[in-house]
Structure formats: structure tokens, C-alpha cells
């Protein structure tokens, strides 16, 4: 699998100009990997500026910080200079393979982790990394804009995000969600609850005063009224709450079962246009996120102004619908959202989520993912072993060299008479 790249120039909130190469999303590509790498590259550009160019040793970075279990951490273990190899890969080619991207990210993890004094266990991250190319399950909470639940990959994905100082956010929020829904405020619980109610009450009536039925229709209306997974309450929190997203900050944004890069500037939200269909539209860099319905979602240049030609057309047949809606990787799953096609109408008495089909598909996918993971892990282990052997050889060579130097006689030239051969004295 390969991805096109595109050069984008843009101004940050301080007026500083940046020029970056980004990855583009095709119809069926792994949008989490793409958004993760794009967000990483752009966010570290800003981090270097925010650090006032303070010089820190890489050992100091590890001394002061270790991986925590919170994806809200913005202190990356990685600096912009650490990305040199990854950025060179993306900049050197018009098409970049998925394997080469995963290889560079894995090498980056290993190199940075080995530089510090503290040992960082990367086994969980390295195991899950190749699996993320097939999608990522997220379990949204309707009262919490920061995503912290990634189902069975929660620990590994959380460590990955913390390592690079990134976070994921969403705007699929409900007014007073906790009060209205209780424990069903999380998507997986809401889904289980709706299936249970359909089984328990075969004939549901919206005017029923039964608390469980009332909650069922509250959820049903919420899904039907917000099919794009963005609400007014969610937009309000993303725009106005600095603890969720600060001005001049990047994050991974989940919407329409799709991952993208989001940027906040002067309390306005902008998503990076990474749709492959816009690869030849050099002026199209951002899309404004100003309205739930999309009426104010104008395309913008890197300077956040409207392009001269407003009727922008995409050049790739595979790009359909609004940017951010493409890249289906899965379905509306029985456990949580996977990056794929969402349909609020999927909750019905006739076919509540097609659970058996979903479970079977998931099992088959997990088996395939596990095989990919084992293969890639073996490659990483071999490379790490080779590196260890190489370091040992270098250390031994240095030790041997020191021993030889310590045994060498004085290099000062002597008169042959002062150094008689075979111990004989000339009389």
C-alpha cells in the first residue's frame, strides 16, 4: 500500500511560516496512521518554537519524563530533529509505502527509547503498531471530548500517544450526557443498552414513560440527529475549552469514523485537508470546522484565507464526499466505533448491529493482524540483536586498541649503539 504526498506551506498563530510534506489519504487507506504521522510532524514544528529553542540533552528529556497513562500529556519524548529520517522519507518520494512508514516510526521509537537513562518498555507499542494499519477501535464518551478508550489496544495506543505527546479528541458530545445517560454515556455501553432494550421490549413506543424506554429513545434521537458525529455542544467545547485543545495546538480528530489532523487558532478550528483528491490543489491546505452541518466549512489556504478559485474540484476519482468522510476501514462494530462507515439507522429491531457477522469478521481480522505483528516484531528483534552485537564489537575493538597502546615502547628514535643487537656489547 502506498500514499501520495503533498507540500504545504502554512502560518501558525505567531505568524511563523512552516513548509512541510504531508501524507495524503486515499479511499481505503489507514487513516489513523496518516493522521498520526501528519499530526506528529506539524505539532513538533510548534513544539520547537514553544521551547524557545532551549538546548536540552536527550538524557535530560528522559530523566525528567517517563511514559504516563494519560493521552493528555503534551510533553513529547521526541524532538523535531528526531524526525529527520521520517521527514526525509516523506519528502524524497511522491509515493511512500506503508511498510516504510511503519519501519521509520518503529526505528524512531527504538532510537529515542535507547538514548535515555531510564529503560522504556516498547513491547506493547511495537506489537500494536502494525495492527493500526488496518484500523483502530475507539470507544467515545458523550461527556468527554478527549478519547482515552481504544478497546483492547488502550494500553498500547495510550503509550504510543504519550511517547509522542499527542492526544485524540472528538466532538460527539451530548448536553448533560452523564445526567441523561448514566453509565450508558460511553458508546459501547449505550450500544449494549439499546440492543438489550430491543430484546426486552419488542414493541417500543416513544410516549412510554418507562425510564429505560425514555433513555433508549434519547440515545436513538442522539444518533439520528448527529450522523456526522459532531454536535453543537461538542463544537463549543473544542472551540472554547483550552484544557481540551489550546490555541496554536494540534491533535488527532475523530469524526465521521475517520481520523484527521485538527488545529486551533484564535479559538477557531481547522482540519488539515489530506484527501488525495486535492493533491494538485496547492492552495487548499485547511478546511474550517465552524458548523455542525458543514455550511461554514470553507476550504482555506495555508495562510487561512480563501483561495482565489472557490469552486475547488478534486482530481482523484477515489475521493468522494466531504474531506474526512472517506477512508472506510471497518464498520459500526459491536464493541465500539471502528474507523469505517457509521449509520445511526443501524440500531433497529430487525438487525441490531449484525453482531454475529461482526464478531466473525473481527476474529478473522485479528488472526491476520497477529500474523503481521509477529512478522514485523521478528524483524525488529533481529535488528535490535544486530545492533547489540555491533556495539559489543566496537567496545571490544576499543579495549584491544587500548591494551596495544599500553604495551608499545617509547617511540623516540635511539642510536643503534645504545641498543645493541642480540645483547652483544661492541668493544
TrEMBL record:
Domain (MINDY deubiquitinase): residue spans on this chain: 2-304
Biased composition (Low complexity): 318-329
GO cellular component, one term: cytosol
Pfam annotation, one family: MINDY_DUB
Region (Disordered): 300-329, 364-427
Regions of compositional bias (Basic and acidic residues) in chain numbering: 308-317, 379-388, 398-421
GO MF annotation, one: cysteine-type carboxypeptidase activity
GO BP annotations, alphabetical order: protein K48-linked deubiquitination
InterPro entries the UniProt entry points to: MINDY (IPR007518), MINDY_domain (IPR033979)
Cross-referenced PANTHER family: NF-E2 INDUCIBLE PROTEIN, UBIQUITIN CARBOXYL-TERMINAL HYDROLASE
Protein name: MINDY deubiquitinase domain-containing protein
Amino acid at each position: 500500500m502506498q500514499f501520495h504526498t503533498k507540500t504545504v506551506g502554512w502560518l501558525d498563530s505567531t505568524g511563523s511560516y512552516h513548509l512541510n510534506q504531508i501524507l495524503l489519504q486515499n479511499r481505503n487507506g489507514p487513516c489513523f496512521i496518516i493522521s498520526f504521522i501528519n499530526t506528529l510532524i506539524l505539532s513538533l514544528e510548534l513544539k520547537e518554537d514553544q521551547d524557545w529553542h532551549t538546548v536540552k540533552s536527550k538524557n535530560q528529556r528522559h530523566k525528567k519524563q517517563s511514559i504516563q497513562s494519560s493521552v493528555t500529556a503534551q510533553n513529547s519524548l521526541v524532538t523535531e530533529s528526531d524526525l529527520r529520517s521520517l521527514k526525509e522519507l516523506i519528502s524524497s518520494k511522491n509515493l511512500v509505502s506503508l511498510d516504510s512508514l511503519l519501519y521509520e516510526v518503529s526505528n524512531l521509537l527504538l532510537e529515542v527509547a535507547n538514548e535515555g537513562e531510564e529503560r522504556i518498555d516498547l513491547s506493547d507499542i511495537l506489537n500494536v503498531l502494525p495492527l493500526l494499519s488496518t484500523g483502530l477501535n475507539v470507544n467515545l464518551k458523550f461527556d468527554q471530548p478527549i478519547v482515552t478508550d481504544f478497546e483492547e489496544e488502550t494500553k498500547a495506543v495510550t503509550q504510543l500517544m504519550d511517547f509522542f505527546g499527542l492526544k485524540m479528541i472528538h466532538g460527539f458530545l451530548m448536553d448533560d450526557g452523564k445526567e441523561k445517560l448514566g453509565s450508558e454515556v460511553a458508546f459501547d455501553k449505550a450500544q449494549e443498552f439499546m440492543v438489550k432494550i430491543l430484546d426486552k421490549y419488542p414493541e417500543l413506543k416513544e410516549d412510554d414513560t418507562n425510564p429505560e424506554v425514555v433513555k433508549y429513545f434519547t440515545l436513538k434521537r442522539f444518533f439520528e440527529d448527529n450522523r456526522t458525529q459532531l454536535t453543537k455542544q461538542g463544537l463549543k467545547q473544542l472551540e472554547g475549552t483550552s484544557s481540551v485543545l489550546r490555541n496554536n495546538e494540534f491533535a488527532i480528530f475523530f469524526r465521521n469514523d475517520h481520523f484527521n489532523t485538527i488545529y486551533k487558532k484564535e479559538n477557531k478550528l481547522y482540519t488539515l485537508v489530506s484527501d488525495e483528491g486535492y493533491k494538485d490543489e496547492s492552495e487548499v491546505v485547511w478546511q474550517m470546522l465552524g458548523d455542525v452541518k458543514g455550511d461554514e466549512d470553507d476550504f482555506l489556504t495555508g495562510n487561512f484565507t480563501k483561495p482565489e478559485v472557490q469552486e475547488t474540484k478534486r482530481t482523484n476519482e477515489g475521493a468522494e464526499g466531504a474531506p474526512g468522510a472517506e477512508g472506510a476501514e471497518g464498520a459500526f462494530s459491536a464493541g465500539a466505533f471502528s474507523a469505517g462507515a457509521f449509520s445511526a439507522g443501524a440500531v433497529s429491531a430487525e438487525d441490531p448491529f449484525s453482531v454475529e457477522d461482526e464478531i466473525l469478521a473481527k476474529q478473522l481480522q485479528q488472526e491476520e493482524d497477529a500474523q503481521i505483528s509477529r512478522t514485523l516484531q521478528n524483524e525488529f528483534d533481529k535488528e535490535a540483536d544486530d545492533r547489540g552485537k555491533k556495539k559489543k564489537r566496537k567496545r571490544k575493538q576499543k579495549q584491544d586498541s587500548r591494551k596495544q597502546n599500553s604495551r608499545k615502547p617509547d617511540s623516540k628514535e635511539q642510536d643503534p649503539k645504545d641498543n645493541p643487537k642480540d645483547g652483544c656489547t661492541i668493544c
